[in-house]
Amino acid sequence: MRATTNAGRLVRQVLAGEVWPALADRHGYRVGPDGQPFLLPGMGGVTLGVHCADPATGYASDHLEPGASIRHRDAAANMALQFLTCVGNQVRVAGGPAAGAAGHVIGQHAYVLADFPEPAAANLTAGDPVTVLAVGQGLALPDHPRITVKNCDPGLLAMMPGGTRPDGRLEVHVAARVPAEAIGAGAGMVSEYANTDLMGAYQGLGEDLSLGLEGLRIGDIVALDDADHRYGRGYRPGYLTIGVISTGQCMLFGHGPGPSTLASGPSEAFWLVDDPDANLASWLHPQPEAAAAAGRESR
Amino acid sequence: MTGLRLVAVNLLGVAEHPRLGDSPYRVDRDGRCYVPAGDGGIVLGLRLGDSAFGLAADHAAPGACLVHPDPASRHALASYACIGNQARVRTGQAAGARGVVLGQRGEEGRVIVGLAQDDLARVRPGDEVAVRACGQGLRPPGLAPEVTVLNLDPDLLGLLPVGPGGEDGAAVTVGVRMTVPSRLAGNGIGRPAVAWDLDLQLPPPGPGGDGDLLLGDLVAVTDIDARYNMGYRRGWVTVGVVGHGASPLPGHGPGITPILTGPAGTLRPRPDGAGHVGLTEAMVQLQ
Q: To probe the interface with A, which of B27, B183, B224 has the most A CB atoms within 10 Å?
C-alpha cells in the first residue's frame, strides 16, 4: 500500500540558480590514499556522459558530479536553494543554447546536482541560468511517525516501489546496503546539504581500502546502517538512513560516491527489499524511446 | 625525510571570539535546540585531566583557541602548530604569559593553547599570541619507519607513553585510554590530519565513570589511516590526543589530534584503562 503523505499540504517554490564553474586553485594537486598527487575533473560545471544507472566509480575523476552543478550567486539565497531543493524536483534551463531543456535533481553536494538528457547537457555550460521547482521539505508520513523524510520530492516518493506494509513498517527497495565503516566526509554536517561520502569504493586502489562498494551506480537507492540523519549526520546503532547516490568516483582519501539523504529512522520502522532496479533511472529518467512515446501521447 | 633537520617558525595567532549566526540555536542529535557555549574562544576552568564529557558545552577546549583573520594564514597556523609547541602572549593584560599548544580543530582551523588559569583569565579575544611551530616532518630516529608521526613537538614524544620499538623492526607500543572502532569516527574523516582533529562519536560515561575520556588522553582508532587525509584503511591504527570535549551535534564528539598512524602490526595500542596517563599539565609545565 502506498504510504499516506501530507503531499497536498506542501508548497512548491520557484528557485533560481546557475550552472557553477569547476573550481581549482593554483597548486592544482590534491592527495590520494597513499599520498598520490592527482588533478582530476568531476566537480562543478557540466559533467558529461554519466547519468543515473551508470556506474558511480571507475572514472578518472574526483567527486564526480553527474550533469549540471548549480548554485546561486548570493550566499544566503544559495543556502535556500541548497536546503529547499529536493531529489526529484524538476529543473528547467532558463537561458542559453539549452534553454527549455528539462532535467531532474538527483542530489545535493554543496551544489544542486541536476541530470539532463545527454543532448541537452551537451549544450549547457557554466553561467547558464536554471529554474528549480522546489518541493519536498516538510514531507511527512503520518503512518510512520518515527521516520523523518527529507530532500525528497513527493512525486518521487509516489513512484518508488514499496510503501506501508500490513505490519506497519515502511517498505523501501534498495540497490545496496552500506556498513557504518564506510561513512566518510560529511559526517557531522546537516543532512539537507551536500551528501555523505562513502569510503571503500576506490576502484583499483587496493584491497585494504575496499568495503565492497565498487558496484554502486549513480541514482542507486541505498541503506546506511547505524546512521541517524534526522537532525544531521551521525552514528547511532539501530538506526537506518535511506539515501540516493548522487556523486561518483573519488580519489581524495576519506571521500567517495555519496548518498543524499531521503529518509531516516529506527531500523525496525523500515522493511528493506534488495532490488537492483532501485535506481532513480527506473522512475525519473525513462529511456529515450519511452520519453518520446510519452511526448507523443501528451500532444 | 629521514636525516633532514626540522625548522621552527614563529606564527601569529589571535585569541578567538566565539561566533554565532542570526539564530543562537543549534540542533542536537535528538532534535533538541541548544545554545552552543564553549565552542571556540577562551574557555576558563577546563584543564587537561578533566572529563571530556563534564560540561554542558559544545567542543569546549582547555584554554584559548587561536585563529588568524586571513583564512590562508589561519590554515597555516593550524597545519604547522604541533602539540607541545611553546606559545607566548604578546599583547593585552596577559602579555608575556607562556602557553603550550594542546591540540587543533579543523574546518577553518583553530589551535588550542593551554595557559595557567591565572594567565588565561587575563587573555581577551583579539590578543596576539606567538606560536613557535615545530614538528611537522618529524622522523624520530629509532622509530619504526612504517609509523608516521605528526602534529607533535619533537621534545614531547619522549614524555608520552610511547615505546619506540627500535630500528630492528619491533613494534611501536602506545599506552591509550581506549581503542575505538573506525565506525565511531565522525567529523574529520576525509580531511587533512595535519590541520583537523577527528571527532569520536562516543556515548557519555556510565554511572561509575565507565568509558570516561579525559582531556589529554591518548586514544587509538582502528582502521583509520591519518598519514594524509584521514580515512578508512583496514589493518591500520591511528593514535591521537584528546584536545576538546564532547558535542551535542550528531557526527561530533570529543576530538583527537592525530599524532601517530601506522599499520596495526607495527603500531600497537596498549589499553591502560583507568591507569592511563596521557598528556598532562606537568608534562608541558602548565601547573
A: B183
